[in-house]
Amino acid sequence: MSKSGSKVQEAKLELYRKKGKIHAKAASGRFNTLRWAVVWFTQIIFYGTCWLSWDTTGVTRQAVLFDIAHEKFYVFGVVLWPQDALLLAIVLILAATALFFVTAMAGRLFCGFACPQTVYTSIFTWIEAKLEGDHLARLKLDQGPMSARKLAIKSIKHGLWFLFAAWTAITFVGYFTPIRELLPTIPTWSVGPWEGFWLIFYCAFTYAQAGLAREAVCQHMCPYSRFQGVMFDPSTKNVTYDAKRGEPRNIGRHDSKAGDCIDCGICVQVCPTGIDIRDGLQYQCINCGLCIDACNQVMTKIGAPIGLIRFMSEKEVAGAVQPKGLTQRPRVAIYASLLAVFFMLGAWTLADRSLLLVDVLRDRGSLHRETAEGNIENAYTVKLMNLAEAPRNFIVTVSGLPGLAIVGEQEFAVAPGSIRPVSMTVAMPDSGEVRGIQPIYFHIAAKDAPDMAVQEKTSFILP
Fold it and tell me: Around Cβ 217, how many Cβ atoms within 10 Å?
């Protein structure tokens, strides 16, 4: 490469590193293919799941719906209530632990492939590339003076960005308000105040983060990039430049003692955060692997082995043997153990959750009543909560004292997903053998499902 050509290349690299918005060069290869596969997979789930329906006892509802107004979360056949907050906590702990585990194994792999910022930035960049051309054409257009052509292209691009961000916001809100009910209200803007707020906020947020901020989020705004290092160990694999093989850089490929790196700068040009991986591991690196794809293509063209840039650990860089198994990596073993423990705890909690909740409240207004027949009565309010998606008839009985019984009706119908408070009177003969406050038990069971039963302890007051 001539000196003039080298200077031009150097100027381009400085431009990519330091000036304005980064216009990354398009890359092709297995990591780029994998990234787009993750984009398709996650977005099909996100945009498609809210349109799925679920039939429950003849009533069709949205399969996944977070109905905050009625304090119910529908996830296909499972209905979660506020009483199931432990399950939500376990899910969040599982997600965090899985992120730590992946980070300990392969650095910021989540950031490079599945992070929403990465996914939506990829989509917005694809729209931009289709309208403005490759990275150099986009760079030239940005630096050029305003013209009718530039104004038209930029207007169409931002219009498409806005439409995509708006549909993303509608989909997001559609998980909290049934999307088939939400859509007809948007043209006339007859949405509720909270729906309107989140539609505007999420649309603006997506547009700004994926279209305008882009790499600045990973470079300056994301807290994860700052503390990820504490989750690494010497065996964590990250995208790494093999300096032993690549240095000194062989620009002209004439020096037999030079390394394999020809200083083409392609690895910098394809980087979505604009870093030079040859400078070592940097917190801005999101482990997307695009520099690996680009470098492998260059190595193939010059007849050198691929893998000059690859996923490597500190031990591999130092020439040490990579440990095998979890026993030699305590950090990874702890994360894996926590994953297993919380997964089993979540599965057990979900399997053991009762679809019947009962709350027994004794009437504090009167301690007890004595009837003409010589019985002692206590009044109670029993709240029957049917968490199932089908109506249930519940039979209530009492025990704990001789002759104890419920006065009046003992069978009660409760609608699906509802709470029914029931006033009850419990009586027993006054034999004089028992006095004071005594423990008793309410037994509640579904008539058509005896295994759906609950026992609640309360007190019975005698003279």
Answer: 18
* Alpha-carbon gap, residue 436 to 401, rounded angstroms: 12
CA–CA gap between residue 89 and residue 17 (Å, rounded): 42
Place of tokens 């650095």: 107
**Which amino acid appears at position 200 of this protein?**
I
State which amino acid sits at residue 221.
M
CATH superfamily of 356-462: Immunoglobulins (2.60.40.10)
Q: What pLDDT score was predicted for residue 57?
A: 67
Overall residue count recorded for the chain in this entry: 463
pLDDT at 383 over 60: yes
Helices 330-352 + 85-106 axis angle, to 10: 160
**Residue 353, burial from CB neighbour count under 10 angstroms (0-12, 13-18, 19+):** middle
Q: Are 98 and 109 in contact (CB under 8 A)?
A: no
Domain boundaries, the chain: 27-225, 356-462
Helices (H) and strands (E) in the chain, counts: 16, 16
**How many CA atoms are closer than 13 Å to the CA of 78, on its beta-carbon side?**
10
Candidates 221, 200, 40; CA nearest to 126 is 40
Q: Kindly report whether the global pTM for this prediction surpasses the value 0.90.
A: no
**What pLDDT, in 10s, does the model give residues 296-324?**
999 999 889 999 999 998 888 888 887 87
Distances from the Cα of 363 to the Cα of 379, 407, 438, angstroms:
5, 15, 15
Distance CA 362, CA 379 (A): 6
Say which residue the tokens 């009762």 belong to. Answer: 354
Residue 13's nearest CA partner among 310, 292, 286, 263 is 263
Q: Residue 233, class by beta-carbon neighbours within 10 Å (0-12 exposed, 13-18 middle, 19+ buried)? A: middle
pLDDT of the residue at 182 = 94
